[in-house]
What does this fold into?
Amino acid sequence: MKRFCFDLDGTVYRGKSGIPSAVEFIHRLQAEGNEPFFVTNNSSKTPDQLQQALTAIGIHAKRGHIYSSALSTAKYVAKNYRTAKVQVIGADGIRYALEAEGITVSEEKEVDVLVMGIDRTIDYARIADACLTVQRGAKLIGTNEDIRFPTEDGFLPGNGSFVWMVANVCGVEPLFIGKPSPVMLEMIAEEHGLTRDELVMVGDNYDTDILCGINFGCTTIHVNTGVTSSEIVKGKPTQPTYVVEDLSKVPHL
It folds into this structure.
């Protein structure tokens, strides 16, 4: 049995509105006893908040099946910078994840690591402080590299836009943990005893979702409901396993 891993923004919902074909597809999987996984680069929400966002569009997801770039980033920092001074830009999701890993967030000017997740309240002064922090020697880590994400009204700046702004000012190369890194799929496989052949990565963003699945080595399905159009995807040198208009068009796997 194939186990499906769904991106959220642009794949399952846009803003607070569910994508009907995705909701119906997920309901069908659950009716068959095939509980899906949800793999998001959104670092602003905690697992509980992501679970509530899914519930609001009629999808009842198991909390242990929700994976975010915030959780992956926190695990990476805990493994590689356990005793470091860490400064954070971001919302509840990344702060919760770091706290859960026992990482103490510092407000000092000179720190070892600056972690950047999406912060919808960020202003020029905070970006300027981040640039100075990195120039003082802090390692720049982004939860994810998404340049933009879809909403009901159009595209908005993603975390990658802000991380690259800081990186370009400072002349450094940031480290990104979320998709297209295969880390979250590796976590799913390890924690649930699954193989690459059993997993399917479904997403709307070729540069994050699809490349994540390709990097991991599993089946990939691109849906034309979000960031990257099917026309653009079909011009890529490395193709997804399937390119479909939406999840009502997925072949039997």
